[in-house]
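FORM 7B: Structural annotation worksheet

SECTION A. Query
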Amino acid sequence: MTNRNGVLAALTQEQRERLMELAREVVFPAGTRIFEEGRTADRFWLIKSGSVTVDVHVPGRRSPTVETLGTGDLLGWSWLIPPRRWNFGAEALSPVRAYQFEAAEVLALLEQDPVLGRAMSTAVAGVVAHRLTAARTRLLDLYAPYGSGAAAS
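SECTION B. Predicted structure
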């Protein structure tokens, strides 16, 4: 599990409060498929408790988990980047409590407040970079002839 996203930590207290005004609490039972790769990304979550696996579709194979997220992590970043389609899938590994945000509402807020927009975009970009690196490493470990080589570093 990670808590590397720093999304809320990257915001000022006032910005956090403005963002959290848009949140609503949701619960996902263990085993719930939260979203599927390729479908419309119209929301995101900040995990309060529980674990979520992030996976990637590999044709002809079971979708491997590329990362497991937990408390404090951002679940979903595709809502910010057109064409706003999920780049990964996600499933509740255990019961999950989270704050859910509707993308349209958050995008309107970010448009109204460019300073908040820049802070959120920068924080989400860090999550994107981390997730893509994690996916690459995991897929190399699973499918490349000699793995990722990460253990040799």
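SECTION C. Observations
The two ends are 21 Å apart (CA to CA). Residues 13-139 form a domain with the Jelly Rolls fold (CATH 2.60.120.10).

SECTION D. Sign-off
Analyst initials: ____
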